[in-house]
Write a structure and sequence with these properties.
By secondary structure, the chain is mainly alpha-helical. The protein is about 55% helix and about 0% strand. It has helices at about 5-15, 20-25, 35-40, 50-60, 65-70, 75-80, 85-100, 110-115, 120-130, 140-150, 160-165, 175-190. Helix 6 crosses helix 7 (about 85-100). The longest helix is centred in the middle third of the chain and has 17 residues, at about 85-100.
Length: about 210
């Protein structure tokens, strides 16, 4: 099979297994770009399920950027404590909220502006672009990096280079959804230590199948 056809087949099979848009595939709960930004910051080294449990309280107490910008850091730390690394996350949330509030509450829509916000790296910025705004963006987390390597889609371990390698052939409208499908497949099937190759819809076109 030609590599271009194999890549297309990967995209199509994952789309059938995990249907939906980037917004519907995202397991973080949010009602606005600001809320998604806060939830994504909290999601570092934490499960989406736990983040969602925390944000149910967080967004009631701090529904707007202005509310969070003026938060008492000790109180904010208490609310987000279950997500881990709560001290650093609280500082990032307040700094991010202050920056957004200074813009009139509007979240930026470019990766250059987003990555200037406190606590916002390239992965988080790409989540915002693809999920909140429906723009091209391809977040690379540990699942995306692992599956991209196993599927022979990249030879790099650097997230920025992996993003570039995938963007070289993925259609702009498919970037966010592909990232989330790789994440879901990594969580449910292609685990780090014991991938369930016998259950994988990509096994016959995956160069790593059966090697673990």
């Amino acid at each position: 099979m030609k590599e271009s056809l194999r890549r297309r087949e990967i995209v199509e099979r994952l789309a059938r297994s995990y249907p939906g848009s980037a917004k519907t595939l995202c397991e973080l709960r949010f009602d606005s770009p600001f809320q998604l930004l806060a939830a994504t910051i909290l999601s570092a080294q934490c499960t989406d399920e736990r983040v969602n449990a925390v944000t149910r309280v967080l967004f009631v107490e701090y529904p707007t950027p202005a509310d969070m910008a003026g938060a008492e850091i000790a109180e904010l730390e208490r609310v987000i404590y279950p997500t881990g690394f709560f001290r650093n996350k609280a500082k990032s949330l307040i700094g991010m909220a202050q920056a957004i509030a200074s813009r009139g509450g509007t979240v930026p829509t470019t990766i250059e502006e987003l990555t200037k916000l406190p606590g916002v790296g390239r992965k988080t910025a790409n989540v915002l672009l693809s999920v909140a705004f429906g723009l091209p963006g391809l977040p690379v987390d540990t699942h995306v990096a692992r599956l991209s390597a196993r599927l022979g889609l990249t030879k790099s371990k650097d997230p920025v280079q992996i993003e570039k390698d995938l963007l070289a052939w993925v259609a702009p409208g498919d970037t966010g959804a592909l990232s989330l499908r790789l994440i879901l497949h990594g969580r449910r099937v292609c685990a780090a230590r014991r991938p369930a190759c016998e259950q994988c819809v990509l096994a016959d076109i995956c160069p790593s199948a059966g090697r673990f």
